[in-house]
Amino acid sequence: MTVRPLDELLEELRVVRLPLRTRFRGVQEREIAYVRGPFGWGEFAPFLEYEPSEAARWLSAAIEAAYEGWPSPVRDHVPVNATVPAVKAAEVPEVLSRYDGCRTAKVKVAERGQALQDDLDRVAAVRDVMGADARVRVDANGGWDVDQAVDAIARLAPYGLEYAEQPCATVEDLAALRKALARNGVDVLVAADESIRKAEDPMRVVRLDAADVAVVKVAPLGGVRAALDIATQLPVPVVVSSALDSSVGMAAGVALAAALPDLPFACGLGTVELLAADVTDDSLVPRSGEIGVRPVVVDDLLLDRWAAPRERWEHWMRRIAACHAELV
Ligand SMILES: O=C(O)CCC(=O)C1=CC=C[C@@H](O)[C@@H]1C(=O)O
Ligand SMILES: [Mg+2]
């Protein structure tokens, strides 16, 4: 990826603030900056607490989208999972009803301020709505220690789990958990997410035998090519997931999923449904459980309609400058 001059990146900058339908990972709205190049728009939306050292990879992904485009797809549709935030069990049917035809659901668990019973109720509700043949995975975002994870996963396992994503925070704990689950006869796969996307060395998960499945996200890994490179080096199956993007960022995730030689799992690319607004009127959302590989046409009127307050533009310009300094 060739880093473009800063003034060029800022020339056609747009910044929006999109409301979410449901609170997700602690946020109620999503601020997103867009840069524009010969290949179209690139999305730059590292979460607000990320430092430039980490956020710089998100800028690489945006530059790749705008100035280089993506590798050729090997498939024209990608299967997608429904994503269920840490809502009350009673809200599950409404959340799931937004994901047309999805037969896999990912359920957030271990939310701060909630109890294991909330997770059990939510997962039970998902199983109930989706039926016995659906696939259900959970994502704890590192919220459990090893003992809590063994207990929680053993109690969730009867609902039938495809895998548990990032049950514990560290790679060491994931490795210890896998051993403890095996000792206790709990047959649930462990997936690594943060241990790959936020790690200095994504391959450490493999060396420590800490995961059965790897979650791979475009923006945190620095672009479609970079993520493809990591995905093809990982000796475990890969699940492509999003970073809570608008349709512009989602298209990059779809491009990665479409370019992977093997795609054994549904992808976490349905999260445009979590947004209450988008920058295109033809959002990249699942239909019949899949997203078709296609370009996203951004609507200038929607960029205006959802434009962030002016002082936030200043913030994003400073942020892009700081990330740019990391890349050059
Ligand atoms: O994987 C999915 O179903 C959707 C994406 C998703 O869950 C996430 C997107 C963005 C930030 C993360 O907290 C979260 C995740 O942990 O996977
Ligand atoms: Mg995750």
Automatic annotation (TrEMBL):
Top-rank EC class of the record's enzyme: lyase
UniProt keyword Cell division, yes or no: no
EC number: 4.2.1.113
Domain of life: Bacteria
Gene3D superfamilies with a match to the protein in the record: Enolase-like C-terminal domain (3.20.20.120)
GO MF annotation list: O-succinylbenzoate synthase activity
Every Mandelate racemase/muconate lactonizing enzyme C-terminal domain range: 89-184
Assigned keywords, A-Z: Lyase, Magnesium, Menaquinone biosynthesis, Metal-binding
Cofactor: a divalent metal cation
Pathway: Quinol/quinone metabolism; menaquinone biosynthesis; Quinol/quinone metabolism; 1,4-dihydroxy-2-naphthoate biosynthesis; 1,4-dihydroxy-2-naphthoate from chorismate: step 4/7
Reaction it catalyzes: (1R,6R)-6-hydroxy-2-succinyl-cyclohexa-2,4-diene-1-carboxylate = 2-succinylbenzoate + H2O
Keyword Transport among record annotations: no
Active site, UniProt feature: 108 (proton donor), 217 (proton acceptor)
Binding-site positions, Mg(2+): 139, 165, 193
Role, per record: Converts 2-succinyl-6-hydroxy-2,4-cyclohexadiene-1-carboxylate (SHCHC) to 2-succinylbenzoate (OSB).
Family affiliation: Belongs to the mandelate racemase/muconate lactonizing enzyme family. MenC type 1 subfamily.
HAMAP family in the record: MenC_1
The protein's name in its UniProt record: o-succinylbenzoate synthase
